[in-house]
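ok so i was messing around last nite and threw this chain in just to see what happens. nothing serious, just curious
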Amino acid sequence: MTIWIPRLDEQGPRYRAIGEAIARAIQSGELAPGQRLPPQRRLADALGVTVGTVSRAYAEAERRGWVSARVGSGTYVRGSEPAAESPFLAAAPQAEEGLIDLSLSLPPPHPLRASLLGAALAGIAEERAVLERAVAYQPERGLAAHRERLAAWMTRLGMPVTPEALVITQGGQHGIDLTLRALTRPGERIAADALTYPGLIGAARQAHLKPLGVPLDDAGMDMEALARLCAQQPPRLVYVTPDQNNPTGAVLSEAQRERLAELARRHEFWILEDGVQYLPEAERGTPLYRLAPERTLFAFSTAKVLAGGLRIGALRVPEGLQEQLGAAVRAQSWMVPPLMVEAVCRCVESADAGRLLSWQLDEQAERQRLAREWLGDYAPSGRPHGNNLWLTLPEGLRAAELLAALEERGVRLTGPEPFCVGSEPAPQAVRLCLGGAGSREALAQALRAVKETLQAPPPIPWRTL
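result:
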């Protein structure tokens, strides 16, 4: 059986030449819609190139909308014209069949997330020197070249940092844990919003710390309440997500940011600023690490920008703490795997990374609009380009009953308890993570179920006399 073998131009990278040849063959009709492309190894052998080159070429053709890959089946021609856009809103498989899971803070699904990684890995496979570095031990803070590339990316995103200030981490959660392990001791007190990211609560428990909840409102953490706490006994560290509290979406005002920086200097506590929940620069306030650089650590990650599974992040550390944080990395895992760091660096340097982020912000804005269209009567809170929505329930409705009723309808949300710091009482509210739905249609289906359940809440059974 003969296979299709492209005619390649002599100039430029081979993977790009193969991708261009695929496009020409589809446009000319040489490759018909629905036709399967040759297996990658067979085409590689026929062209005298590596399998990685063909893999990268197929990923490029898929990115441009000419072909689509089917797991376990192969890569197939889509049609004679490229898609106006890649199938951005193709439904992602749910964790359970028939379930729309809005309980996890995930970015909206997009095929470029996998394609970016595929192209990066294919390029790495062709570079012997990169592979040799990837299998060798590296400095615990990460290679200087990797820190330079990540610092350049963060700076392009409006979060200027220097390579010397960075410690490469295995995601934002790792950055939080590293900070607590390096800067606190068991039994010490830390402070956070009364409702905050559950990962901070879990890390504090693992480190045997005493977390204290500080009241918050639409202007973020109540700084007068924090000042009263400091007057009694200053915490060792204060954790904040200033641009959008998780779960409520509250924003720390500029005045509150300046007050926090002043309190940190006066009472000598550290600030851990979590910027993982990415927003466009216009919706972010002044970074705390700019207001109090000597006392602030800033955690960032690829999780909400590229893909959560990459598990690569960066921790901006004040001068003089780099070695201390590096020692914490060494004690935990010696180093972050350099192969994944290299792959992530290539992903963020790709033009497609900017295209993906631009699409993601537009998509999240549209999902926020859709959520308010369905649930606007209940005054939900969340940022215009954020992924989360916080919904305070009507008087008399309990979160547990709402969650149970929605689960029966195939919709999963998160209740308030995981976000409560210490012994803070749980409000009757739920969090919806809009990116968890595989498509806008699936999100609308879930929002309809939420609205209908709010309008006709389940009866509360008597449990005692």
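not much to say yet. The chain has 16 helices and 15 strands.
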